[in-house]
Amino acid sequence: MIYLIKFAYSFILPPGLFVLLLLVLAVWLWRWRRERKAASILLAITLLFYLSSTNLVGDAFIAGLENDYPQPSVVQGDVIVVLGGGAASGTPDVDGEGNMYGSAANRLITAVRLHEQTGLPVLFSGGQVFADNGNEGDIARRQLLGMGIPDSSILIENRSRNTEQNAQNTAALLREKGLSRPVLVTSGFHMARAVLQFEKAGVTVQPYPTDYLVSRPMKMYAGRLSPSAGAMSNMGLALKEHLGILVARLD
Question: InterPro entries from the xrefs (predicted)?
Fold first, then answer.
């Protein structure tokens, strides 16, 4: 019963509510014989909108990206490079102000755990993207120190605003520090684009994906057909990554 309630509830809030309203409008237009062409077009758009807002489709797109690179069992490198993914400014933290967004925080935690296993230095790459964002590199330094990483094992690149700049600025810092075998830590859905940008910057990396969004194996149940804002967000995220990969390859 609880799953039936959850399914029905998903059509009360956006985007499910909008799917329902568009479907009602399409049916209403269909009743007017002169508007059946418009109704058919609207129905097709509604179906596409509905599918893109379900976990069934969104997770499939994300999983395709997350499966590109398996997580290695053995770390082989001389530095752990972790990419940022956004930060908030002025928000309270344990030992200061500013917090990483979810994906960036997961990447940072993975880098800390790898440092504890290997003793390799951590190079964090990420700056301030928008005026109301925090500077990721500065926040990362404070948080890394707070998690017990010694300052001598921390390298910060705090000027990058996108993945291309991450790769270019990190490559320059690696050359400056005499490092050549980076272990690249970023979200599984972001790894393919990140590896491509680092290759373009002349850097060969060992991919170490983390921050997975889709469970394995994927299972089918009614809830996966429910529209949700989270599923639509994953769909948009996957499309953004595919578009970024395409642009990088054509550039």
Answer: Cell_Envelope_Assoc (IPR051599), DUF218 (IPR003848), Rossmann-like_a/b/a_fold (IPR014729)
